[in-house]
Amino acid sequence: MSKIEKKEFTPARFIIAIVLIVIVVGWTVPTLGVFVTSFRDSRDIYGSGWWSVLPHKALVMAETFELPKNTDPNAPISIKGKTASFEEWRQGILMEDESTIRWIGNKRSRTIEIYKEKWVGFGANLTLQNYRDVLSGGTVEFTDAQGNVISRQGNNFSDAVLNSIAVAIPATIIPILIAAFAAYAFAWMEFPGRRPLFIMVVALLVVPLQIALIPILRDFTHWGLNGTFVGMWLAHTSFGLPLAVYLLYNYISTIPRDIFESAYLDGATPFVSFVRLVLPLSIPALASFAIFQFLWVWNDYLVALVFLGDKNRVVTSALAAMVGEKGQDWHLLTSGAFLSMILPLAVFFGLQRFFVRGLMAGSVKG
Amino acid sequence: MSQSIEPDWRPLPLAAFVVLTGAVLVGGFILLQNMQGMKILMTLFAVIWGLGSVALLFYVLNAVAQSMPRKIRSMSVAFVFAGPAVLLLFWALVLPTLRSLRLSFMGPNGKEFVFLDNYKFAFSDPIMLESFRNNLLWMIFGTSACVILGLIIAVLADKSNREKLVKSLIFMPMAISFVGAGVIWKFMYAYKGEGPNIVEIGLLNALVTAFGGKAQAWLLIPFWNNFLLIIIMVWLQTGYAMVIISSAIKSIPNELNEAARVDGANSIRIFFSITIPSIMPTLITVTTTILIFSLKLFDIVRVMTGGNFGTNVIANEFYLRQFTYGNSGQASAIAVVLLVVIVPVLAYNLRQFRERKVLK
Predict the structure, then answer these.
(1) What is the reported pLDDT for A191?
(2) Distance in angstroms (rounded) separating the CA atoms of residues B228 and B219
(3) Cα dist. A184→A194, B125, B350 in Å?
(4) Do A114 and A61 form a contact (C-beta atoms < 8 A)?
């Protein structure tokens, strides 16, 4: 497709645009829903869908009053010239002036609310309280749709975010360092076993993690590494190594030989030419793998679940635990989910170019 | 140049340096274990110490290798460079494969030999059969939906003015964890029960009721709930398929399309006779990757249903066997089955590798 052709307007182009818009909207709406909900007041979340922050016509409570104490809820009740049973009032009855009248609560409450249809929108109560609650480790309180105050033990998401950082940054950079050294050795050094060892790396690219989890867990239990950051670094480094060595080898082996030779003639040892030449020259490949590995480690749940358990919970396991413990507390779940996504989304949108390149270079990972 | 970062070591200072490095490694670890109270400080320390010790380790090992007699020096340096990676891979992947294989013939705690009992379980237990069926659903429907949707979006976006925007938005879920995606979609499928004045806050139920249908607890509907979970994977992985396919489409030489157009072929004809055959190798790679992915799928099922209501998959049953039932024999047998299924792909990778003569 040439550039000029792209600007032409044809019916076919119009249809394509419509189809794409439908797909893109469908793709983004689920995330948008969580994003919007995370900023809504907890009471609103349980009383209406998140889309109600958009302008729409809705029944809005206009008036509330109590019936006289002597009203018998078991007999037909007359309100504003209409007579109906308690159950019917509770369902809500449409009056002649287009308002709806509802009995709120149980029979003893005798509370009546009058609703009128009105245009509403953008008047939502936006708040940061959900984020404050989910980050806190103490007791948090919120109000549900009926106005009851419910208290919950906080999930201490702020600790989880810090744990995730402590796991993810070293687990991204350590494998890069180890793999870059190895890739350099495989590409430019002679040593016995070079070829079979590299074939092993390629074979390990697709080996499923599950095969390694139980034996490694046994070792960690032996060495007291369960629930520690060091254990996580070791596990993620090892699992990321095949792809890292493979990607970096493909890159480092294309560096022209002359560069190393002239460095050698200048008296540089391999270590020096690695630090001074190979690392700076491979920055694009290092960046691609770094983003790949960072997203992988940050978003990983299985490895964290197995080796960390409930100690030092990372964001994914904290979020999963929240789904289990409080599956209906949407104000906490949505803000927690969004907190877990901020960093990877920022990395992703900021460095998309490198990420795509890494994805192309080695698409199969165990 | 070499003097500045690599001094010539004499034996005694070198030995002292090695000891010091060891002390930094061990001391840092002990310190880290005792910093639970100060979370931010601990995070900072963990990052600096973790990265610092690996760099230090390489530096020291290299210094030791350089101090070797000239005859074996270059080989020792090569071992220092490649060694850590090779050792880690041996310990974390090669050895465990053999150990899992051994465990799979052993009883629940890995002590007594039970021969094929665990495999009998893996291929005949009702829960395993259900898992196999579900994994098959994931592999067939999930994979084909990802690839076909990815292909359609790639082709359409290629003809659009807003290609970059469209692709970024479809690709975005790749940055979201499965657990996060689980929350997002659980909210889509949310069900509040029945009763007067109950407002559905899940989008799916809201849409269904708006069109006159009845709200449902979607994730509890046997068999079909599998597809609701598969949708989540499709949502996450289509972006991957799209990006790879899109770059393959762009590498088709323009002359090929022009020539076909001159010969009178329309867009649809071009798509089937030129685009598809040219990107076939890419389609195969993408399909294999997503197939493997859906075979090992764990997080989505774990978070959404925990494998209940007829949605169990192999990887979740692996987890349950090890951590809920404490039966490492059965869990290992499941892991071995997973590996065996992937062996053809592994063999294909190796053949490709040999044909391309990557290693000079």
Answers:
(1) 86
(2) 7
(3) 12, 48, 21
(4) yes
Question: Which of B62, B86, B348 is best to mutate for the A interface (most A CBs within 10 A)?
Answer: B86
**Structure tokens belonging to residue B102:** 């051994």
Structure tokens at A347: 């990395």
Neighbours of A245 (CB within 10 A): 32
List pLDDT tens digits, range B206-245.
888 888 888 888 888 888 899 999 999 999 999 989 988 9
A354/B contact by beta carbon, under 8 A: no
Among candidates B6, B82, B85 on the partner chain, residue whose Cβ is nearest the Cβ of A271: B6
For chain B, helix, strand, coil in percent to 5 are: 75, 0, 25
> For residue A132, what are the β-bridge partners?
none
Nearest to B235 among A27, A245, A299 (CB): A27
* Amino acid letter, B316: N
Residues 142-181 of A with CB under 8 A from B: 145, 158-159, 162-163, 165-166, 169-170, 173-174, 177-179, 181
Q: Phi/psi class of residue B177: alpha, beta or left (left: φ > 0; alpha: ψ in -120 to 50)?
A: beta
DSSP secondary structure letter of residue B110: S
CA A217 to chain centre: 27
Locate A223 and state its tokens: 């060495």
Q: Among positive and negative, which fits the CA dihedral B254, B255, B256, B261?
A: positive
Q: How far apart are CA A30 and CA B241, in angstroms?
A: 20
pLDDT tens for residues A114-165? 877 777 665 567 778 888 887 877 677 777 666 677 777 777 888 889 889 9
Length, in residues, of chain A: 366
Residue with tokens 């020792």: B76
Tell me the backbone φ, ψ of residue B77, rounded to 5 degrees. -60, -45
**Inter-chain touch B156–A20, beta carbons under 8 Å:** yes
C-alpha–C-alpha distance, residues A225 and A234, integer Å: 10
Reading the block at residue B259, the tokens are: 């020539």
Q: How wide is the angle at C-alpha B211 spanned by C-alphas B205 and B216, nearest 5°?
A: 30
DSSP string of A49-94?
A: -GGGGS-EEEEEEEEEEE--TT--TTS-EEETTEEE-HHHHHH-EE
d(CA B90, CA B329): 22
Q: How many helices (H) and strands (E) does chain A have?
A: 17, 8
Q: Which amino acid is at A280?
A: P
Q: Chain B within 8 Å of A349 (Cβ-Cβ)?
A: yes
Residue from B70, B71, B77, B89 to probe the interface with A (highest A Cβ count within 10 Å): B89
Name the 3-class secondary structure at B322: helix
Calculate mean pLDDT across residues A48-57. Answer: 75
* CB-CB contact of A227 with A311 (8 Å): yes
Contact residues, chain A, for B247 at CB < 8 Å: 356, 360
CA distance B252 to B154: 13
Determine whether the interchain pair A16/B353 forms a contact, defined as Cβ–Cβ distance below 8 Å. Answer: no
Sign of CA dihedral A15, A20, A25, A27: positive
A212 vs B5: CB contact, 8 Å cut-off? no
Task: Report H helices in chain A.
Answer: 3-7, 11-38, 42-47, 86-91, 129-135, 157-188, 194-204, 210-223, 229-252, 257-265, 270-273, 279-281, 283-299, 302-307, 315-325, 330-350, 352-361
Put residue B72 in one of left, alpha, beta given phi > 0 → left and psi -120 to 50 → alpha: alpha
pLDDT tens-digit readout, B18-44: 888 888 888 888 887 777 667 788 788
Instruction: Tell me if residue B176 falls in helix, strand or coil.
Output: coil
Q: Indicate the pTM of the whole model.
A: 0.85
- Cβ-based neighbour number of residue B227 at 10 Å: 15
**A15 has a chain B CB within 8 A of its CB:** no
pLDDT per position as a tens digit, A296-328:
999 999 999 999 878 788 999 989 988 887 767
List C-alpha distances in Å: A57 to A117, A118, A119, B211.
6, 5, 4, 17
